[in-house]
Amino acid sequence: MNSIDSTLNLKHDSNPIVLEDMERIIAANLPWTLLKNKTIVVTGGSGYLASYLIKALLAISRRYELHVKVICVARNAKSVELRLGSYVGAPDFSVVKHDVSMPLPNDFPRADIVVHSASQASPKYYGTDPVGTLLTNTVGTMHLLEYAEKSKTEKFLFFSSGEIYGVPIDSTRAIGEQDFGHLDPMNVRSCYAESKRMGETMCSAWTQQYGLHTNVVRPFHTYGPGMALDDGRVFADFVSDVVAKRDIVLKSDGIALRPFCYIADATIGFLTVLLIGGKAQAYNIANPGAEISIRNLAKLIAELFPERKINTRYEAPVQSNVYLQSPVSRACPSIEKIQSLGWSPVTGLVDGFSRTIKSFLV
Known about the structure:
Layout: H1 4-7, H2 16-26, E1 39-43, H3 48-64, E2 69-74, H4 77-84, E3 93-97, E4 113-116, H5 124-128, H6 130-150, E5 155-159, H7 190-210, E6 214-219, E7 222-223, H8 234-244, E8 248-250, E9 257-259, E10 261-262, H9 263-276, E11 281-285, E12 291-293, H10 294-304, E13 312-314, H11 336-339, H12 349-361
Parallel strand pairs: 1-2, 1-4, 2-3, 4-5, 5-6, 6-11, 7-10, 8-13
Antiparallel strand pairs: 9-12
Helix pairs in contact: 2-3, 2-9, 3-9, 6-7, 8-10, 8-12
């Protein structure tokens, strides 16, 4: 089998950590031939999760000669250039500049598969642009579902979020796909989670009424190479601090627990649901075995590269209307449902965050 360098015909991401991730994704035991000759539209293609998925789809197609065509839909051409610039101009990759919260143009390309990942997922947007945040997840989803139904699209994969569970009723119990906690619809931070909930319901409705094959993935705290270091979430801040040789500064007591899932594991999970997930079904994509408190995560990350001499300290937070913190102290998901499809995460915290930091240092 040829190396990924040759299969990408020199149009590839040259980061060695990303290349290793792609090799692992390619080697996953999934029915890749189901993608043969398919055209796949990926919205939000310049975003973190979607861009990694696009790289994986192109690598898989080129390795196994599946002749997949990927169409990246994005609002920001600069973001596409930053994340996917080495793919621009390839015959199997094209870019459509469009905001999906606006009606789709008449010449919008037809696709066999739609992956709707466009979303403002960072909490830094919930306070500054709650309207834009919710419109993409609702009106944007409507536009794409209507398009998929009229185009007789074979599959529609919606990227939701672990945020839809709200504040768990019992934080000691793993959250299954049928469990839901409290969300206050009058709290502006709910613009993201409530609109993701509606997007999921819309998928279910289009399946019920039109027979469209929809699936939903609910990612939890996904990290890895290529994530935005100015994302606003604490784990991105911690990685950014190590890369820049700055002390890690905690702005809270750090006792909240979060399960962190490495991007290569998550991408295989997304592809598992896309290829063999049940119709109108939702799946948690997470690594409950990598649950850790924010305080202990800061300590772990600081100690990964001792030569960089990173310390951790606490500073009282400055009140802000920009970053709206989550009220959830613990929300650890069950992944039994997707495990029944054969997927399980394999990357632990030390390996995952080591790989992530190294990817920014090479």
